[in-house]
Design a protein that fits this description.
Blueprint lengths: L1 H24 L4 E8 L5 E7 L7 E5 L4 E7 L16 E10 L2 E8 L3 E7 L4 E7 L3 E3 L8 H4 L3 E6 L16 H19 L3 E4 L9 H10 L4 E8 L9 E6 L6 H11 L1 H4 L9 H9 L2 H18 L6 E9 L11 E8 L3 H7 L2 H20 L2
Parallel strand pairs: 10-11, 10-12, 12-15, 13-14
Antiparallel strand pairs: 1-2, 2-8, 3-4, 4-6, 5-6, 7-8, 9-11, 13-15
The structure holds zinc ion.
Length: about 375
């Protein structure tokens, strides 16, 4: 028996080797690229090749704005068609990224989001101009006096196919975060001191890096990401504030960050590793100062919390939340409370409690700017 399974293994290895060398001999070739410009301003890029095109990963980068799509190894080159009539693209290039990956880069003429990618032949890439959902002052950002007001980006956690944590009575985190976000926007605009941009104002899914991109494209001065927690210990309750750190302040914070970061996987594209190297470089540069400011911002909110608001012990914690990785915007993530706790779940649905939290956050923002 041992001999025959060994033989089987050897022949399988030979077949595999033969397949691999055949593959290498016939490296697939990219053959063409066309762009269709749609009436709604979106643009569809179609890439053809000698065989089906699979996508290893895709993401957007800023400074300069570009869309990156990693493919298995392909030969051939691509460029923007001469008769291109769109506005989003500046150029297209493809090159060898490493032994097994060819990298397709679309240089953007204007900030755009990756709307969809359909693998196949052709590979279809949908692009749409980014328009961060803005309210009040943000929409009028180009009007002079408005421009001096700080722009606060509020990010309602989760949304769409990603409900987030589910409460004891089936309360969905995505709904709680949206309700708090809309209330905070309203109250912030009412002060007359701030402009507001939202990453979402309805129930739809946005990837974590896209949330960061939206805040950056809006030139936000501060970013607040709102979430509601869940914990196997039903007695865990209270609000907590997180800022970014390469190492988590404790195991619980690490587990929470891991959980929140999974939001991207739900959409079927795991981007959790793709911009890790980019993220690390950014942390080492601009982010150090931003991280300090984020800590000051978190402390300002903490000091402004109404005494009636229950806080989790060690209210200000640190962890590697992806949504906090804007390299130039001081950002905090607030876990508003625990949906797994009976009392918290009730509070998170109460308009009075919501107003109390919203007022405290605004006080914190005021305090942050007063100290600048
Ligand atoms: Zn969450």
């Amino acid at each position: 028996m041992a001999v025959s399974s060994r033989n089987l293994f050897l022949s399988a290895a030979l077949v595999l080797a033969a397949l691999l060398s055949a593959d290498a001999a016939l490296a697939a070739e990219l053959t063409g690229l066309t762009v269709e410009v749609n009436e709604d301003g979106s643009e569809q890029v179609a890439v053809t090749a000698s065989e089906e095109i699979e996508v290893q990963r895709s993401f957007t980068l800023t400074n300069p704005d570009r869309v990156v799509i990693d493919l298995p190894e392909f030969t051939g080159s691509l460029s923007l068609p001469k008769k291109y009539k769109g506005v989003l693209l500046k150029g297209v290039r493809v090159g060898k990224f490493n032994a097994t990956t060819s990298r397709l880069v679309m240089d953007l003429a204007a900030p755009a989001t990756l709307q969809n990618i359909t693998e196949g032949n052709p590979l279809i890439v949908g692009l749409k101009a980014s328009k961060p959902v803005a309210a009040g002052g943000a929409a009028k950002a180009k009007v002079k006096p408005e421009e001096t007001k700080p722009l606060i980006a509020i990010d309602a956690g989760h949304g769409g196919q990603d409900p987030g944590a589910i409460g004891l009575h089936k309360t969905r985190e995505r709904d709680v975060t949206l309700a708090f976000t809309l209330a905070l926007r309203k109250a912030l605009l009412r002060t007359g001191r701030y402009r507001v941009a939202l990453t979402r104002e309805d129930d739809h899914f946005i990837m974590l890096h896209e949330r960061v991109n939206l805040a950056r494209q809006a030139h936000a001065d501060l970013m607040i990401s709102l979430h509601a927690d869940s914990n196997p210990r039903a007695e865990a309750q209270g609000l907590s504030i997180y800022t970014l750190s390469a190492t988590a302040s404790d195991d619980e914070a690490a587990a929470l960050a891991e959980h929140e970061n999974k939001a991207d996987i739900i959409s079927g594209m795991d981007l959790s590793t793709t911009d890790q190297d980019v993220a690390n470089i950014l942390i080492d540069l601009t982010q150090r100062e931003t991280m300090n400011k984020s800590t000051i911002f978190a402390d300002a909110i903490m000091e402004s919390l109404h005494p009636k608001i229950t806080r989790l012990s060690r209210t200000h914690r640190f962890a590697g939340f992806r949504v906090l990785k804007a390299p130039d915007i001081p950002s905090v993530l607030i876990e508003l409370g625990f949906l797994s706790n009976r009392r918290d779940e009730k509070l998170l649905l109460s308009p009075e409690y919501r107003e109390l939290v919203v007022a405290s956050i605004i006080k914190g923002i005021d305090r942050y700017y007063a100290a600048q």
